[in-house]
Amino acid sequence: MISYATIGTNNLPRALAFYDALLATLGARRLLEPPDHAGFTMYGVDRQSPSLVITGPYDGQPATVGNGSMIAMAMPSRGAVDRFHAQALALGAADDGAPGLRSDEGERAFYGAYFRDLDGHKFCVMRIGPADRSGEGQNR
Length: 140
Known about the structure:
The chain is an alpha/beta fold. Helices cover 19% and strands 31% of the residues.
């Protein structure tokens, strides 16, 4: 249903370095950087999957954080939630909620972690479903 989400930055080189390193852990890369849209950079694993765009605001005004806005990213396992959150923090993101179970355990269990990127945008990395059969991520 969602094609891409866009977030603004006031420091494009810093933001692109952050997302180059962080999203590579998911196998994502820069998919699109149109020369006529200075700074518009689309990340994804392929052109058929949802993507994330990093750019300066089109209107030339400073980028700001949306109050109440958040982008959630599905992970294949609880361990992947833990690793992605840790990688974001290692790259300079701010912790906004450590990995953990946010509901009762079971088929619809919600396991997630929250962070804010270098510009303050809020992200959730999450997995819905029972604990991984491998046992990874069950310590929370």
